[in-house]
Every structure is written in structure tokens, then in C-alpha cells.
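C-alpha cells for chain A. Residues wanted.
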């Protein structure tokens, strides 16, 4: 079902599509799932890999946005809290309820954040993750053993969601295919097709592996390329103004010893006005983020020195265990596709995170902005807009209660394979058939060879990077270990994909070049 050859055959045999979606991040995949479950013939094309850009580089939170509450953006918070609840219901293997503690060093903060979090609780309604409570200094210290205690007055505990972003993207891609969509990574859209009236009616795309070109027709084309939206808008109209102003956020990953308990820390006020999170993730700790306006964007954004210093400095103000550059296991940077501000004075933290749908004169539909938590709602609004434009027959949205591939009732987080949900059985079967696949990939890591094979056979991974960055998250958890196992992973892939030794050598070299940027020097 998830075989590339089968999916490519569908490109050759289909004359017309109802919808072609460009972009395989959270937004594009959400739109594809929405379209195919409404009964439309759906094709999604991603130039590199699912969630390659922003969607694999988040703070790993499914949240309403405490920051937006402080800005008074009640509607956005309410919508995101509702969607957070749906994500937990529909992808229980990847989304979990995470307790956060806001440490308070002034009596006034204790009162202020208790009241603020009660509003947050209230807005989540029936889909609440749990009540926020005030805790004493003694309990705060007991739960956060690495927290600075000097002048500590107590803490406020609240609940939000935590997840694995690119794993969810891959599972949504699988769900799309199971629901009848054609979803392909490593296929790049080169041009848009137009009819005699100048309306967009298809795309020209190229399979980046075989360099085969396809001309594909569609009733409607949706641009869901995040920070790359302007490139597609400029394919449509060379003089289109930029609609996106990318803002960069970086994250540092540390060993679990920096935050040994089960709670995350939320630092509500930093020097740049953002909040800083320390979040347990895959038995490590993710610390971030920053907010730096950029003039350009790339598939592999690089963290700036000043961003690294800011995250370390801010975290160390609250930790009694000093974090240094040498302790960083991996560093990653992501770009937020913020709507371009009207004037230069606007600060990124004040640019709305709510999404925006742009309808071009050519009837190209572009969806921008938003965040992971609201991906499903963004998709619903986009498809409703296409129906309103009479580009698709009317049909109601069905994604509110659709279980995502792998979702299951019971989750044992003690076993790192829990993220596969119902697919754990398949991985166990691989090991049963070939016990060698049960071997660990690296002495410092919990991951096995079987997970590499599974990623290629069932999760559409095509390269070492696809596997180690977005299927098995080693590049994000321990970049040095990722480089050390690249040759082994390259060989497993070479055999599985029936490739040559030259291919393997090239793969290793390409991966090391990328992985090197995840090591803090």
C-alpha cells in the first residue's frame, strides 16, 4: 500500500485529480486527509520528505498557546485547545498529556499565573487535560530537582500536550493513503499549469529520484508549502509580493539529567518576550525557543550564535545544574511561516499565528500561518473555502473523529516503540523473522535495526536522512551518534532499496553534511 512504485503508477494512470496539494508538512497533509475523507480524488506532492521543514522542528508541544492568552487572543487559544483535545483522541500513541510547572520567584507571580492558568483551563472546556493548581515551594523543589531554589516562592502546575511532530506527519501521510489519496515525497512541483482563462488547472512535477516528469491536471491546486509559499505564488505570478516573513526558532537537546522528573518547565518571561520551555522528549530534554526574523529561508536553517547563547543563558538562570555548549546533544532550527507584517515595526511575537487563506486571481489557493496544533482546523477551513468557490462539490468535513494510523487505546511509554502504536506488532514480527534486526543501532541509543527496515518498507523513507531525522529521531536526539551509525544505516537501506555501493557512499556523505549542522561546535 505504501510502495513508491504503486503510488507513482497512480500518477501515470490518472488523467484528472479533484485536488492537487503542494507541500507535505503538517498543513498539506492535513488538507490531503480532509480532501480524501470528503471523497475527493486527492494528490499530494512533497519536494523532499514529509515534515522536512518546519513541521519536524517544533518545540514538540500540542498547546493552546499560553503566550497568545497573555496577548488577549482568546479565540485562537480556544480553537487550539479544542484541536489539542482532538489530537489526543485521534493520535493517542503520539500525543500525551504533559504536566508543566511555572516556577515563581515573586509572590505576585504566584497569584498572576494561577489566575491566568484557570482561564486556560476554562477555555479548554470538555477537552481539558487537567486542572491547574498552585503548589508550595517544597513540592516545586521535589518535582524539579534541578531548579534553582534561591528566592523560589512556589509554582503553578498546568497541563498541555506533548508529541512527536514528524512521526505524526508520517502517520497522517499513511492515513491519507489508507483513505484513498495518492501521497508522494521526493516529487517536486516545477510549474503550475493554466487554462485559456489563466486559471490554474494543474502542475508539472518531477520525481527527483528518476527525473521523470509528470503533467498533472486538477480542478483545484492548493499551495501548502509553509515558508516556501512565496515561491509557488511567484510561479503563478512573477510579480507577486512576498506574503511570508520567516521567523526562526531554535532548540537545544540535552541529556535527561538536566530535567530528571516527569514535569516540563515553562518560563513565562524571557528577554525577548517569548516563553522558554524545557520539555521531556524521548528520554531527553528539549529546550527552546527563540524568535528571530529572517530575510531568507532554507530547507536546513542554521542556528545563530546569539540564539544559542540566549537559550543557554535563560535556561541557566533557572537551573542549578549548569548547561554548557558541550552538553548539547543536538541543535535544530525551524522557521515559522508568519504572515508578512504590514510595516517594519511589527515584532514577530505579535504577528498573529492564526492562519490565512489567500485566493489568487488564477484561483490558486494558498494556506499560510497557523501552527501544528491547529493543522486539522486549517485544513477544514481551506477545503470549505474551495467548496465555497465552487471548485469542488459540497461535502462535510469528516476529520474530527478520524483515528490517525497507529492510534491505539493503550500506550506503554516505558517501551520506546510506543510511538508506533498498532504498528509495534509489525516491528516485533520483523525481529521474530530475523533476530539480527533486534540489535541496537548504537550503544548510546535505544533504537534497533528493525525500525530502519520498517521505515523503508512501510513509512516511505527513501534516504538515510528520511530515516534518522524524521522516522527514528536520532539526528534530533544525539547528532554525533547519528553520524556514527550512518554507514550501518546506509547499508541497511542499500539492501532494502536494491541500490548500489556508490549510492550508499553518496547517501552517507550527504547525510553527514546535514548532520554536522546539528552538532554545536
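Reply:
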Amino acid at each position: 500500500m505504501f510502495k513508491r512504485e504503486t503510488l507513482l503508477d497512480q500518477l501515470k494512470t490518472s488523467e484528472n485529480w479533484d485536488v492537487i496539494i503542494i507541500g507535505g508538512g503538517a498543513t498539506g497533509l492535513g488538507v490531503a486527509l480532509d480532501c480524501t475523507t470528503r471523497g475527493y480524488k486527492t494528490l499530494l506532492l512533497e519536494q523532499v520528505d514529509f515534515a522536512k521543514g518546519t513541521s519536524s522542528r517544533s518545540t514538540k508541544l500540542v498547546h493552546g498557546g499560553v503566550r497568545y492568552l497573555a496577548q488577549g487572543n482568546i479565540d485562537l487559544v480556544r480553537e487550539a485547545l479544542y484541536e489539542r483535545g482532538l489530537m489526543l483522541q485521534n493520535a493517542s500513541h503520539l500525543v500525551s498529556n504533559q504536566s508543566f510547572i511555572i516556577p515563581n520567584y515573586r509572590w505576585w507571580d504566584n497569584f498572576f499565573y494561577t489566575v491566568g492558568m484557570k482561564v486556560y483551563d476554562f477555555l479548554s472546556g470538555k477537552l481539558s487535560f487537567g486542572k491547574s493548581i498552585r503548589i508550595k515551594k517544597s513540592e516545586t523543589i521535589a518535582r524539579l530537582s534541578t531548579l534553582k531554589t534561591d528566592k523560589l516562592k512556589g509554582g503553578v502546575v498546568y497541563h498541555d500536550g506533548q508529541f512527536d511532530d514528524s512521526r505524526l506527519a508520517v502517520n497522517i501521510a499513511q492515513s491519507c493513503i489508507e483513505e484513498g489519496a495518492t501521497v508522494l515525497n521526493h516529487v517536486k512541483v516545477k510549474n503550475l499549469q493554466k487554462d485559456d482563462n489563466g486559471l490554474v488547472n494543474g502542475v508539472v512535477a518531477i520525481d527527483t529520484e528518476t527525473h521523470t516528469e509528470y503533467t498533472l491536471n486538477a480542478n483545484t491546486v492548493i499551495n501548502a508549502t509553509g515558508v516556501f509559499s512565496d515561491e509557488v505564488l511567484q510561479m503563478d505570478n512573477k510579480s507577486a509580493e512576498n506574503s511570508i516573513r520567516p521567523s526562526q526558532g531554535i532548540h537545544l537537546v540535552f541529556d535527561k539529567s538536566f530535567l530528571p522528573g516527569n514535569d516540563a518547565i515553562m518560563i513565562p518571561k524571557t528577554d525577548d518576550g517569548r516563553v522558554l520551555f524545557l520539555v521531556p522528549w524521548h528520554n531527553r530534554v528539549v529546550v527552546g525557543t527563540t524568535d528571530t526574523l529572517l530575510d531568507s529561508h532554507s530547507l536546513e536553517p542554521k542556528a545563530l550564535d546569539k540564539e544559542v547563547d540566549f537559550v543557554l543563558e535563560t535556561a541557566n538562570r533557572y537551573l542549578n545544574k549548569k548547561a554548557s555548549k558541550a552538553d548539547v546533544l543536538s541543535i535544530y532550527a525551524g522557521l515559522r511561516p508568519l504572515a508578512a507584517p504590514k510595516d517594519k515595526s511589527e515584532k514577530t511575537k505579535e504577528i498573529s499565528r492564526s492562519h490565512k487563506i489567500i485566493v489568487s486571481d488564477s484561483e490558486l489557493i494558498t494556506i499560510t500561518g497557523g501552527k501544528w496544533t491547529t493543522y486539522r482546523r486549517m485544513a477544514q477551513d481551506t477545503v470549505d473555502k474551495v467548496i465555497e468557490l465552487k471548485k469542488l462539490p459540497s461535502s462535510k468535513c469528516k476529520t474530527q473523529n478520524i483515528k490517525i494510523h497507529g492510534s491505539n487505546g493503550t500506550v506503554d511509554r516505558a517501551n520506546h516503540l510506543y510511538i508506533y502504536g498498532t504498528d509495534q506488532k509489525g516491528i516485533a514480527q520483523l525481529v521474530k523473522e530475523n533476530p539480527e534486526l533486534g540489535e541496537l543501532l548504537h550503544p548510546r541509543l535505544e533504537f534497533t535495526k528493525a525500525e530502519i527496515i520498517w521505515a523503508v518498507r512501510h513509512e516511505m523513507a527513501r534516504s538515510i536522512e528520511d530515516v534518522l531525522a524524521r522516522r527514528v529521531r536520532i539526528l534530533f536526539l544525539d547528532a554525533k551518534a547519528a553520524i556514527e551509525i550512518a554507514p550501518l544505516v546506509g547499508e541497511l537501506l542499500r539492501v532494502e532499496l536494491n541500490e548500489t555501493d556508490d549510492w550508499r557512499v553518496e547517501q552517507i556523505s550527504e547525510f553527514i553534511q546535514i548532520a554536522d549542522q546539528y552538532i554545536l561546535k
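The domain at 93-162+245-339 is CATH 3.30.9.10 (D-Amino Acid Oxidase; Chain A, domain 2). The radius of gyration is 23 Å.
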